[in-house]
Specification:
This protein is an all-alpha fold. It has 6 helices and no strands. 73% of the residues lie in helices and 0% in strands.
Length: 131
């Protein structure tokens, strides 16, 4: 028998998964962050869906690296930080209120600093390299 908490976590996972799926088709709506949230929820409630997410050819390896190791690849960091700063800049240009503009930019800077602070996996040695 599942508890109410398990049902809520599972429902949140499904919501995040669906939003991530929409992000595959809608520009500006992120996929990876929603699927990370879904993977974290499904890791506790639906192992089959977790495995389905992390086996995705395009997004799975990065999601698995983040969920299981707490790391982001260097390319993932660059894309994430770049997307945050571009979207925040565009949003700040479109917003009328100065305090809202500053809040959006501050949130993007804080998010970028957090992503930059996460560990990056060490590159695998190339064949023939000495240890």
């Amino acid at each position: 028998m599942r508890t109410a908490k398990q049902w809520m976590v599972s429902a949140g996972g499904w919501l995040a998964f669906c939003l991530g799926w929409l992000g595959v088709f809608l520009p500006g709506l992120p996929t990876t962050i929603f699927w990370i949230i879904a993977a974290l929820a499904f890791l506790r409630t639906n192992r089959r869906m977790y495995e389905r997410i992390v086996s995705n050819r395009r997004f799975g390896p990065g999601i698995k690296l983040f969920v299981e190791m707490g790391q982001i690849s260097l390319i993932g960091k660059r894309v994430s930080i770049g997307a945050m700063l571009i979207c925040a800049s565009l949003g700040a240009l479109a917003l009328p209120s100065v305090w809202v503009k500053l809040s959006v930019v501050a949130a993007a800077i804080a998010g970028s600093a957090w992503v930059a602070s996460l560990p990056t996996p060490k590159p695998l040695p190339k064949p023939g390299d000495r240890a």
